[in-house]
Amino acid sequence: MASETMTDEAGVAVARDYYDSSDAIEFYSTIWGGEDIHVGIYDDTRDIREASATTVDTMAGLLGDLGDLHVLDIGSGYGGGARRLVAKHGAAHVTCLNIAEEENARNRKLTGEAGLSDRIEVFDGSFDALPFDGEAFDVVWSQDAILHAPDRDAVLDEVARVLKPGGRFIFTDPMQADGLADTSALQPIYDRIHLQNLASFGFYREGLKARGFEEVEVQDRSNQLRNHYARVAEELDARRGELSASDAFVDRMIAGLGHWVRGADEGRLTWGIMIFRKR
User: Fold this and answer.
1) Class of residue 178 by CB neighbours under 10 A (exposed 0-12, middle 13-18, buried 19+)
2) Do 152 and 127 contact (CB within 8 A), yes or no?
3) Is the confidence at residue 80, as pLDDT, over 70?
């Protein structure tokens, strides 16, 4: 058990150190638009920032009226999703939980500049050990973050703990395809994110059912994963001169993004919007 704990702590540290690095911060701020770090929906746009906002709007639309609801955003990044939930969709209050301190600092700054600090709180912490009371939230929200958790079962345990009965868990995550027998082609991705595997639609369905959740809706939007990583790689290559990062860093990023594109093209990677309700 001790070795597993150390492995989990190491995985968390790797994710935190990467997202707090100056190269990563500049990349996400410049190329991704600086509001969030999430997969976009490109049905009506090629703009990365607009596509990312469309994902938030699509998810919020599936929840309906947010006016009286307290939302917990786990893995909240720069807080773009939280600010949009409050400013555009009328969420009463959003609590952001994120492990990268530099991202959280930017979240607090942007939230303050938007005049939303009274409705959005930002906490430093890991989503496999949430620093909140049980049954405290109406909605748990997450975008493309749980893949980084060394122990995803612990994350689902924590989500079940902090949600009120009848509360909803809505999230997206880059995943591997269900029933994928040979995962060797995905090894470059595993190595890049320092994990042994990715979750799947089946993993979330089974894991949440076992924790007393019922499935509300699962939308397989795997084509958007491919669209997003291809679009980010294209934009990064075109705008590399705007970054202070070395060409070596940019080349590594483009190569890494290419692994995601190929995995999606080969049907090995999936992505979608999932909503479950706690009974």
Assistant:
1) exposed
2) no
3) yes
pLDDT at 194: 87
Q: Which of 125, 34, 20 is nearest to 79 (CA)?
A: 34
Q: What are phi and psi of 114, to 5 degrees?
A: -85, -5
**Average pLDDT of the chain to the nearest whole number:** 92
Query: Which pTM value belongs to this model?
Result: 0.92
- CA 145 to chain CA mean position, Å: 3
SS (H, E, C) the chain: CHHHHHHHHHHHHHHHHHHHCHHHHHHHHHCCCCCCCCCCCCCCCCCHHHHHHHHHHHHHHHHCCCCCCEEEEECCCCCHHHHHHHHCCCCCEEEEEECCHHHHHHHHHHHHHCCCCCCEEEEECCCCCCCCCCCCEEEEEEECCHHHCCCHHHHHHHHHHHEEEEEEEEEECCEECCCCCCCHHHHHHHHHHCCCCCCCHHHHHHHHHHCCEEEEEEEECHHHHHHHHHHHHHHHHHCHHHCCCCHHHHHHHHHHHHHHHHHHHCCCEECEEEEEEEC
Q: How far apart are CA 54 and CA 33, in angstroms?
A: 14
CA distances from 206 to 44, 210, 236 (A): 33, 6, 37
Q: What is the CA radius of gyration of the chain?
A: 18
The neighbouring-strand residues paired with 214 are 277
Residue tagged 């990268």 (tokens): 100
Amino acid identity of residue 50, one-letter, is: E
Query: Roughly what angle, to the nearest 10 degrees, separates helices 22-30 and 2-20?
Result: 60
Whether the per-residue pLDDT at 1 is higher than 50: the answer is: no
